[in-house]
Design goal:
The protein is of the alpha/beta class. It is built from 24 helices and 16 strands.
């Protein structure tokens, strides 16, 4: 056994550093070193000749790296043999390690090729030493010592090379592992917010449902959708929209429980999945916390100069389901119900909602076909100057005559037009049709103006300006005969952009009226900021005059406000003679309502104007004297 160990040791024994040679051998060794220095160019040329004709084909830059290693190593070994000491190889070792590292990092040459070329260099070096020893007639001990030093240098170089390649292998493995983790993360997380994406959320919901089935514990999903997010993207740009989504994600993350999971499904849709719920910490409480968290404004932009307040609609689905998709679907349906009910609220799913959702989807599909199939038409409600009681215009109102639904009232489909964005196309059609009809009436001897309602979605885009210009140009209607009506709430959505667009509309010569005035949140300062021509006092204030004295006082205040600002005042919803008398006493400028006429089709409108001149006007004038 001892003899076997000795044999193994001898088999792997590395050359030992050369022992101090005898004096003559030392002189001969120095002579060999100097001779090797002198033939460094021969070593390079012979090594290159042997390597370029065999083995791997490498690029020119890689070949240059091999030649640099050959030159540096040859001179280092030659100096060491010449007696300058082992430390002379340190600089060469640093350069060689650097080059090996570059080759390994760029995978420019295989480890096998680098080893093969190193062995060829060693062979050429040994041949040159043997030739030099024969020529110089040096001692055999000196040649043996030189060859031993050459072999030791080669093995040290190979060791450094292996270390470099091993270090690069470890670095590559670590990089691959890191990238695999990144890929796995990106496959299951939203790139914008870093939250779990739909894939991961569905997986977690499946696990949650399985645990709930075993433990009989309650579970819930909360579907969160930001209200009017598309308008923010359209008006402020997708950069601000993305920043807002990140800020919303961070704020929601701050209010959900540690046991819950928040994810982003896409767009402006988020979801919270929750389990181990109690009466004290149910899904309704979670929804309330999220809605409360969104009340505080967001400061966005490079200098935090953009200040936004957003709301959200939240749908809640609780209890066991057959699948994760089913739970999220029910939460989604409840979310849409929250939007229909006015937004900025939460709604809990019930089984009746699915039928309502189906009905809504069918309604939306019908709406998308209505414009192309000429199912819309306009009716016109006359307006009057309350001073002389003469008709001075009409308000254009849209109606939808569906082949199977019959006449659909505006309250049943206009909110859906707004939500889907179809209102932009439909609104452009209304402008075209209203201007065309008014131009026809004016050409036929009816000197009336026309008012058209404009939605918030239309006012969010510069397209509205082009639509108005196009309608006026195509119809030939004078711009001063057109009034654009905008609700007070719409006016306050994005004051900067709204003011700019209204100023451009005003430059066209079109009049601008605030509809439903008194029901929103505009201030006197805001009224002065916008180019407003008329205030349409909401019908609720007109009806209030019949109920108490305070109602008359409020009307007096609103009319006087208009006069102070040199803005026309217009009363909506006049239904009784008493209301008309009070409004005339307050010097309200204009009005409309069922007392005069309901909305009429084209023929009935023309008949109304003709009959008013002949019969109604004198009677009304007699009554108000």
């Amino acid at each position: 056994m001892p003899s076997q160990r000795a044999a193994q040791a001898n088999a792997v024994r590395m050359p030992a550093p050369p022992s101090p040679p005898p004096e003559r051998a030392s002189d001969d060794l120095c002579r060999l070193g100097e001779a090797l220095k002198a033939r460094a160019a021969d070593v390079l040329s012979q090594t290159v000749a042997r390597t370029v004709t065999s083995g791997e084909t490498v690029e020119a830059l890689v070949q240059d790296s091999f030649e640099r290693i050959c030159r540096g190593s040859t001179l280092a070994v030659a100096r060491w043999i010449a007696g300058e000491g082992l430390e002379v190889t340190v600089d060469a070792a640093h350069e060689t390690s650097t080059i090996f590292g570059e080759l390994a990092a760029h995978r420019a040459a295989s480890l096998n090729e680098v080893t093969r070329r190193s062995m060829m260099w060693r062979n050429v070096m040994a041949e040159v030493l043997c030739e030099s020893a024969a020529r110089l007639q040096t001692s055999a001990d000196a040649l043996s010592q030189a060859l031993n030093m050459l072999q030791l240098s080669l093995e040290f170089s190979l060791l450094r090379m292996c270390e470099c390649f091993e270090a690069e292998r470890r670095r590559t493995d670590e990089e691959l592992a890191r990238r695999e983790e990144e890929l796995a993360f990106h496959a299951t997380h939203d790139a914008l917010t870093g939250l779990p994406n739909r894939t991961l959320i569905l997986d977690r919901v499946e696990q949650m449902l399985a645990r709930a089935a075993r433990s009989k514990t309650p579970v819930a999903a909360l579907f969160i959708d930001l209200d009017n997010f598309k308008s923010i993207n359209d008006t402020l740009g997708h950069g601000v929209g993305d920043e807002l989504l990140r800020a919303v994600a961070a704020r929601l993350q701050g209010v959900v429980r540690h046991a819950d999971a928040l994810g982003r499904l896409g767009g402006d849709e988020f979801v919270v999945i929750s389990e181990e719920l109690t009466l004290a910490a149910g899904p309704e409480l979670i929804a309330e916390r999220m809605l409360e968290a969104l009340k505080h404004p967001f400061n966005l932009g490079p200098d935090q100069e953009t200040r936004l307040t957003v709301t959200a609609s939240v749908g809640i689905a609780a209890g066991e389901r057959a699948s994760a998709e089913e739970l999220l679907r029910d939460a989604d349906i409840a979310m849409y119900r929250a939007k229909w009910d006015g937004k900025n609220r939460f709604t809990v799913f019930d089984t009746d909602m699915q039928d309502k959702m189906q009905n809504r989807m069918e309604l939306e599909m019908d709406l998308r076909e209505a414009l192309a199939q000429d199912q819309y038409h306009l009716v016109y409600q006359p307006t009057f100057g309350l001073g002389d009681m003469r008709p001075n215009g009409v308000e254009a109102l849209i109606r939808w005559q569906h082949p199977s639904r019959g006449l659909v009232q505006p309250d049943a489909f206009i909110p859906l037009l707004e939500e889907t964005g179809l209102i932009v196309e439909v609104g452009a059609w209304v402008l075209d049709e209203a201007c065309r009809q008014c131009a026809t009436w004016r050409a036929g001897g009816y000197p009336i103006d026309i008012a058209v309602n404009v939605s918030g979605r239309q006012l969010d885009s510069d397209r509205l300006i082009a639509d108005i210009e196009g309608a006026l140009s195509t119809s030939g209607l004078a711009a001063c005969a057109l009034t654009i009506e905008i609700t007070e709430t719409t006016l306050m959505r994005n004051t900067e952009e709204t003011a700019r667009r209204l100023a451009e509309i005003k430059q066209l010569g079109v009049r601008i009226a605030i509809d439903d005035f008194g029901t929103g949140y505009s201030s006197l300062a805001h009224l002065q900021r916008f180019p407003v021509d008329a205030l349409k006092i909401d019908r609720s204030f007109i009806a209030g005059m019949r109920e108490n004295k305070e109602g008359e006082t409020l009307i007096h205040t609103l009319v006087q406000l208009g006069k102070a600002l040199s803005i026309e005042t217009f009363a909506e919803g006049i239904e009784e003679q008493q209301e008309l008398s009070i409004l005339r006493d307050e010097n309200c400028d204009s009005g409309q309502g069922y007392l005069f006429a309901r909305p009429l089709d084209v023929a009935a409108t023309e008949a109304f104007f003709a009959k008013w001149r002949e019969d109604v006007a004198p009677a009304v004038a007699q009554q108000i004297r």
